[in-house]
Amino acid sequence: MGMGKAYFNSPIGWLEIESGKKGIRRITRVDKPGQSDADEALLQTATLQLESYFSGDLQGFTLPLDWEGEPEFSQQVWKMLLEIPYGHTASYLSIAEKLGNPKAVRAVGQANRHNPIAIVVPCHRVIAKNGDLQGYFYGLDVKRQLLQLENPNSFGIQSALF
Question: Which of 91, 102, 112, 155 has a CA between 20 and 30 Å from the CA of residue 3?
Answer without folding.
Answer: 112
